[in-house]
From TrEMBL:
GO terms for cellular component: kinetochore. Residues 71-117 form the G-patch domain. InterPro entries: DUF4187, G_patch_dom, GPATCH11. Residues 1-74, 86-161, 202-237 are annotated as: Disordered. Residues 23-32, 217-227 have a biased composition (Polar residues). This is G-patch-domain-containing protein.
Amino acid sequence: MVQPDEEEEEEDYMSMVFVDTPANPQHETSLQRAARKRREGEARSRIKSKAEREAEAEAAREAALSTALPSSNKGFKMMAKFGFKQGDSLGKSEDARKEPVQVNIKEDRGGIGLESEKKRKFKETMAQAAKEAKRIKATEGDYREERKQEAKNKKDERDLDNAQRIAERLAEQEFEEKNPGQTYQVPLKDINVLWRGRTQRRLEKEQDRQKQRELHNTLSSRLSTSANDEEQDDDSKIALGRDLAPFYTSLEDDDLEVGSDLMIFEALPAADRLQKVTIFLREKYHYCFWCGHRYTDITMDGCPGVTEEEHD
């Protein structure tokens, strides 16, 4: 009978040691060998790309430049005879170059001076581009300024027409207050030059409309009686009131005269004409065009100023 102290101690599984499986099998099977040779053949037969070849050449060049000559090198032995030691500089000067000259690989087929010529042309192109950009910027600034001025001129023309309309209306009211029961009728040459041009343009439009109406009425009346007119002589037409008078005779001799003072005033810029009309409204009728209000006296208490900017 085996004693308890003589019983074999059971092996603890926590203390078991596992042997790593070898990375490469000791014995290669035929299938493994065939697969390995196929991979090696494919690797040898694969044509490397240009980028891969350049990368390998660059790596080999850097490795060669960064590796010092070994003492067994024939060139190193020749320099050692002249006192050269590893890490020293060549020549008598201690400040001489210790590292080899860096190699700059020229990959294109251009001449040696082509790079400097390209740089010069590039600088010229950049300078020309900067000059052109500056010119375009100046042109754009001028264009924006012109558009801004055009918009201001159009606004001044609109304001001028409104100011002239107000001045004309106030003048009519003043005439009716001084002449009760009478219609405001003033010859064109006697109208204030500040709004005479506006009145003249309105009268010209009225004349054009009147001529069109008379022409239409005359043609209508003649077409309606054309059949009977062909059978009548001139005496009969005169007796019936259908003489040979020309069209729209009522206004053909009524020419609108343009005074020299109006021509001088119309030649001024719109802003200057507007200023003259607004000042006239203030002095004559105590009316501020920018406020849109007629004050009781010349002091015009409450009005910010004379110009539009003062009313902003």
